[in-house]
Design goal:
This protein is α+β, with helices and mostly antiparallel strands and 688 residues long. It contains 25 helices and 22 strands. The strands form four sheets. Strands 10-22-21-20-11-18-19 form a seven-stranded mixed beta sheet, sandwiched between helices. A six-stranded antiparallel beta sheet has the order 2-1-3-9-4-7, with no helix packed on it.
């Protein structure tokens, strides 16, 4: 599995609400001072230049103190520059501290566990009790009710209810069963009922909790591609201004003009993009931590970022658009076939069916007064597969009772030269037009009729799809249902397109076609058959309850195992990009006002003609410089809440978002510094 870079989610939900409690602020304050270490400071080129400026100004201050010259202006400048860097460090530190606080609760889940490891391949022989840390990938262990799962793995035998609150924060137990798409278990979770055999899927130090602990402590955070690109751009701008300001003393020398070094340092600091330079790490960390509210882990920061650029959203119908709890609600026999015969065949085909749909067939028959039949002796159950799309039972005499998709059952009947009544299509279409799923039943003598499986569309899904459409995201529903059922549900849910009677390879082909057309694709899956498509998708959201193959293939894992979470993933990604863009616009716009505040102050004494640029009419050159530096420092902590919370995501096109950002953050970034710097100057004039 690829190394994980983003983490979300533990059960410490109260700490999420207390984003700025006193303990967190104290921790962040101390961490901000530790970030002054050169190895840490150099990672942020913009703020490193400010730090160097603070050091140079401090040296100038010390020199003036040593020579007996006045040093108040230089000392104030040095302190303001120092705190400018500290505020930037604090912004990053508080974002890290919000995630780091989760490590304690995660460590409590990774207690000193033991495991009963099976020593033979059959699981019937000797067992040994060892420390969970001694388990290796491929080992098989037994876990009984009341015990903790010793390591990550897949259930290979048994079924159990498990409390995963130590990881997901949800106290409601979840069902995990061998041989299904919900067989994955996490080390440190507790088995409430049932005995299971688990095959370990990770080596020590690579488990789910190990990765989460390392990540929430910030040890492995990496910059995303867009963050790296913006960092390079900001470094380039800083270099340009550094060269320009460094050349000013030489140019002034030709005119016999002496420029004050402290003034030049202040000019440089106010011209370079310090605001976004100071907030950029916090925006990146907070953007990924916002997934914390959705209980999602992403294996790379790029996955969260790419989610913001998604063009196409591939959605399974069952569990994502609908609740996924399809229940048998009606038996519809064909002409000449009694309901009792249809119900009996349906029950025989469902006796060994572990799915909720199969169990609901038995329940419906019993509600209608039909006695549950015994499983025929020496019979063989036919498992459902995505290729055959049928399931049922083959009895000892070779006769069958099967149920499945209409087209699959008709092909099965035609291969056995069984008559197919034209009324069948009428029944199938009638069920499908109601938005239900028709399940056709047949035995070795005839096609018998249809079972109606009803599902319910989740409330609010249509509004979410409309919101995504406004953001420029195309939604495609993928389902194994027939086209009529799929069309009815797609229309009600409001998706842009749908694919009916889809096989696993159809998903993969669709993703590749969309990517060939230059689009970015996201999808969700939980089974082994979803793994190829999850790996191919630009954003693949795997269910935590799913198979190890699916979790390995996806680049995100949903701890709540809610397929509809894919909609939230896209919104989290878009909010990250919008927040970064808005604050970058605001930061660059700030420089305009600071230019008119500080340039006249730097050159007013030497070049009287430059006074024409003094639009703000500040008190003195010194107060102008200090006012600009104070604003430059204070704007960083002032924007920390916005960087952590994110700019509000609205259902607008990219063009509308750009226009609004330019209006609000561009124009606001120009006007606010004029007002703030003038107000600070008025206050300073009382003391200077």
């Amino acid at each position: 599995m690829t190394s994980t870079v983003t983490v979300t989610a533990t059960g410490a939900k109260k700490s999420r609400a207390q984003a700025f409690d006193s303990a967190l602020l104290r921790e962040a304050a101390g961490l901000a001072w530790r970030k002054f270490a050169p190895a840490s400071a150099v990672k942020n080129p913009v703020m490193f230049v400010v730090l160097v400026g603070a050091v140079v100004t401090a040296v100038i201050t010390a020199h003036r103190i040593g020579t007996g010259a006045s040093f108040g202006f230089e000392l104030a400048s040095a302190l303001i520059l120092l705190f400018t860097v500290w505020f930037a460090n604090f912004a990053e530190a508080i974002a890290e501290a919000r995630g780091r606080g989760q490590a304690a609760s995660l460590r409590s889940a990774r207690r000193d566990l033991t495991a009963r490891r099976l020593l033979d391949k059959n699981g019937n022989g000797k067992k040994e009790t060892i420390a969970a840390t001694d388990l290796r990938k491929g080992d098989r262990v037994l876990v009984q009710a009341g015990e903790y799962v010793p390591a990550d793995g897949d259930i290979t035998q048994g079924v159990a209810t498990i409390n995963e609150s130590a990881v997901t924060g949800e106290s409601a137990p979840v069902l995990r069963e061998a041989g299904t798409d919900h067989s994955g278990v996490i080390g440190g979770t507790r088995v409430l009922t049932g005995d299971i055999e688990v095959t370990v899927s990770t080596d020590p130090g690579e488990s789910f909790l190990d990765r989460m602990i390392g990540l929430v402590e910030g040890a492995k955070r990496q910059k995303t591609p867009n963050e790296l690109a913006l960092t390079v751009l900001l470094a380039a701008l800083t270099l340009v201004f550094l060269i320009a300001v460094s050349s000013l003393p030489a140019l002034a020398g030709f005119m016999d003009v002496q420029l004050d070094t402290t003034m030049l340092i202040a000019l440089l600091v106010c011209l370079i993009p310090t605001t976004i330079g100071g907030l950029l790490p916090a925006i990146g960390i907070a953007g990924m931590n916002r997934a914390l509210q959705a209980n999602i882990i992403a294996k790379s920061g790029k996955a969260v970022e790419v989610a913001g650029d998604i063009d196409t959203l591939l959605l399974d119908k069952t569990g994502t658009i609908t609740f996924g709890d399809r229940q048998a609600t009606e038996f519809l026999p064909l002409n000449g076939i009694g309901e009792q015969r249809l119900a009996l065949a349906a029950q025989l085909a469902s006796l060994e069916d572990p799915t909720p749909e199969g169990k609901s067939v038995l329940r419906l028959a019993q509600e209608l007064g039909y006695e549950k039949p015994a499983m025929p002796v020496d019979s063989q159950f036919i498992l459902f597969s995505a290729q055959t799309r049928i399931s049922g039972v083959q009895q000892a005499d070779g006769s069958h009772c099967i149920k499945g998709a209409a087209e699959a059952v008709k092909r099965w009947a035609q291969q056995r030269q069984l008559p197919v009544s034209p009324v069948l299509d009428t029944l199938v279409n009638r069920v499908a037009q109601q938005g239900a799923t028709p399940l056709v039943v047949a035995d070795s003598q005839a096609v018998l009729g249809v079972i109606a499986l009803s599902d319910v569309i989740k409330p609010g899904v249509a509004e979410r799809f409309a919101r995504l459409r406004a953001l420029g995201v195309k939604t495609i529903m993928v389902t194994g249902d027939n086209p009529i059922t799929a069309g009815a549900i797609a229309a009600e849910a409001g998706v842009d397109s749908f694919i009916a009677e889809a096989l696993p390879e159809d998903k993969l082909e669709l993703i590749r076609n969309e990517q060939t057309a230059g689009r970015l694709v996201a999808m969700v899956g939980d089974g082994t058959n979803d793994a190829p498509a999850l790996a191919q998708a630009d954003v693949g959201l795997a269910m935590n309850s799913g198979t190890q193959a699916a979790r390995d293939a996806g680049n995100m894992v949903d701890l709540d195992s809610d397929p509809a979470k894919l909609l939230a993933v896209v919104e989290v990604g878009k909010q990250l990009l919008i927040t970064r863009g808005a604050l970058t616009t605001f930061s660059l716009a700030n420089d305009v006002a600071k230019y008119f505040a500080i340039v006249p102050a730097v050159f007013a004494g030497a070049l009287p003609a430059i006074a024409a640029l003094d639009l703000m009419q500040l008190h003195s050159p010194q107060s102008a410089v200090l006012s600009a530096l104070i604003f430059n420092a204070l704007i960083i902590p002032a924007l920390v809440p916005l960087a952590l919370k994110g700019v509000k995501l609205r259902a607008q096109s990219a063009e509308q978002l750009l226009r609004n950002n330019m209006l609000v953050y561009g124009l606001g970034g120009v006007l606010l510094p004029f007002v703030a710097i003038k107000a600070i100057d008025l206050m300073l004039s009382l003391f200077l």
